[in-house]
Fold this sequence. Notes:
Blueprint: H1 6-12, E1 14-19, H2 26-36, H3 39-44, E2 47-53, H4 57-67, E3 73-75, H5 80-84, E4 97-101, E5 107-112, H6 121-128
Parallel strand pairs: 1-2, 2-3
Antiparallel strand pairs: 1-4, 4-5
Amino acid sequence: GSIIDLKELASKKRVVVITIKTALCPVCKNQLIRIKGKLDELIACNVTFIVLSPGSVDNIKKVKSITNFPFPFILDKNLEISKSLNLTIDDFQILPSILILNEKLDIEWEQRGRNAFFFGDPELMKTLRCSSWI
């Protein structure tokens, strides 16, 4: 329900955008829980997160509650943001991805795709230079 000044946020921290396919995606929920388990290391890397999700506000609130992921969730209404990033699967789903934005809000790094065997966590940590996951 709040407005996020992404440009201001990106001027202070590296912004990592995590997309979730749908609010009901179990692998996506697991991704958020996995990353939440490494927050101490990530905070040391001067990182903050935004979660981009399709679906209803109620379903997104459920995902936030289930995962207890302490960063903002953004409703991608009509998948407008995902379409602009070429991250749509269809009219209702976002390609699960991780994006790192620079201070100009350009995509500095991206990992497209996620499944139960590949989350992209080690690649993210290597890019962020967070040593314990390298």
